[in-house]
Protein 1
Amino acid sequence: MGGDCKIEIHASEREVRVTISGAISEDFDPSAIPADAGSPERKLTVNLAGVTRLNSSGVREWLRFVRGLTPGCFTLEACAVPFVQQLSMVFNMAPRSAVVSIYLPFFCDACRLENYVLVRSDEARRTSAENVACRKCGADTVFDDVPEVYFDWLGRDDA
Amino acid sequence: MRLDVLLVGLETDHGVAQRLRDEGHAVTVAGQEDPISVGTTVLDFSGLSEAGRDLWLHELSASDVRRARTLVLANGNSASAGVNTLLATGAVAHVASHTRSERVLRTLEIMNGAELSLATYLPAGRASSFGVTSSNDVRGLRDELHKTIGERLPARAREGLLATAEELVTNALYNAPVDASGLRRFAHWSRRREVTLTPPERIDVELRIGVDEIGLSVRDPFGSLEPYRVLQSLARTARLNPSQVEKKPGGAGLGIYFAMANVGHLVFQLRTGVSTEVIALMPITTNYREFAGSPKSFDVFDRRSPHGR
């Protein structure tokens, strides 16, 4: 019902890299990810650049997945905008310290293109206040959200 | 319809007061009125002392009648402490923005018995209707809505409205159906399990496209959603704590919260035992930040008896 979610896994002895793309819905099933990934013995990196949306059932499945990981032993990188929105809306969606990089949305008033810029989490607020050139027409774009909402999760302590 | 409205905590020359007078309604302005009389009230917490707010919140929590007849004004969007704080109390059934006098007036009229449908908000809007009888229909519905909305909304705002449709229809399919004894038929089912309604049961979905707003209505024929459940759900989910997400079998309990976050105005019309209708309104904006920064509002109309409650 919720849509397609694709999970690609690249595992080595010491590390597991996972790429999640598509919709995180009730069908989200991370059971193919090695059980010891995200533990002191085997670090886990999850790339979320391709996540297109999350529904309420998908958020619950995601929370179950994250609760099974050891804090400090996993990182989330290239978090797509729909995922970042959930970081602010949902309690303990992910530990703040695990989120290493996120996408920022920018809108070009000149050509109406939505641009997405990948930044490190600790530089996100600063970058959002800057003018970013539109990738299509080169005009200055503006951060396309309300900073207090989009970055709300950055102000929280890890639970 | 001539309304008799008590304004509490508002200045006499506030835009809402002015608009009500311009429309010929009777307006009484009070600074710190105790909640004694049970009339139609517009309440601005920012104009009250802390003791006054506590008094009103207590009264709104304790009295279904008072709650159904009181509209609370809030500042700003869902990010503002105002709206989320109000949702978290679970005591407020009507919230509107200071700046939306037209919406305030419409809400007061509906509280006092005026008809409510998607056409109430978008009378000249172009309408499209869809029927849903199975969870297998949801993806097709989403595609149809996407096609109909097209480029009228920025991509992220459109996705928010589509996500709202999916959450509301999922609630209508899994949570709303009850058997003859009133027990919920599918609420405890995993959302991975297919639900098919029994003919002639059907979820009616309507999309209306107006000049300034796009509206969505999802109506089920069960009428099993009680007003207190809506307010409890919003109160639980608006507080960011471990109880935000349901752990029991069935849904995650986040659907209404997500819908509230994704649209500009969310309206519940609850006819117990007859139907539940949820209306979502989305302002048409050029970009997402205009939507995200626009005022949020919501209403829960309990239509079991005349005059909006």
Protein 2
Amino acid sequence: MTLVSISGEAERAMVRRVLEGDAAAFSRLMDMHTPWMMRVALRMLRDEAEAEEVVQEAFLKVWRSMRSWQPSARLSTWMYRILVNTTIDRTRKPQIQVIGEEYDDGQTIGDDGQRQLEANDLKQRVWQAIDDLPVRQKAAFILFQYEGHSLKEVAEMMDSSEKAIESLLVRAKKGLQVALLSKAADYVPEAAKMPTAVKGKG
Amino acid sequence: MTEEDFEKYLVLYGADLSKWPADRAALAHDMINQPWARAQMSEMAQLDDMLIGAGDISLDDVRLKVTKATILEDYEAAQLFKPKTLIGSGLAVAASMLMAVMLSMNSSASVAEGWENDYTDFAFGFVVDEQLEVLQQPVEESE
């Protein structure tokens, strides 16, 4: 996934108009950036109401500190940084309740239904394992794995070095490997037969 | 490439060497057929499948619109409290107050003036009436 595509000049002009109080420019800015902000917040928090609040809070921080934005950096990279920091702050608060996909265990279901349930269950386990990662590992992992950003971009977004991000990602994925592949045997029978050379490392 | 490097890149970019940076993929080429490397690649491929399968996410368009509307409301409300707006409003309020004070001063002056005139008229009128009364009194003739 690429960053929002708009030329640097157009980006600067839009920021100028937003700062002058042009509501139409602000609305366009939201159309461009709200979808990815919601996606990242939802992946980080797994709670729609919390994600909405975080996006609103992050957007207002963006607007209030817009004068400090340096055009040398892409606006979206800078916005990612604000969103990630806001989300990390929010995950440190204990009130988040993760909502899972519910289903009725007593219901009679066919083969397709059974497969769907197993897929949902596996998805829940994957996200539970991602949730259990330390928050910076989780943020780096989501930006790299699911948002498709490069190491360099993630480093800029998280105000860190590429080496540090690389280290976060390696630790995150090893954590997931340990958490998921030891639990995966029930869902993927072949998994139990796989050699596990690095299981338990890191 | 060391085993450690190999493992790190395997973890970062998955088991598919085509996703690796070209220089790293070339260095890893000699390693991929070793048994431990094949075992790792198999496990990482399995992990990648699990992660990719869990990655799709759907955004609710209605909620997205509501979120945008709320942000826009906050932005418009915040506009009211911008320094420029506050200075403008302050100046307008100050001008209104000044105008009100000036009007009240004018009006006080007129009331005072009016009262003064009334008093003069009254006083003058009284004096004139009194004089007329005196003048109209019959003159007593002395014996």
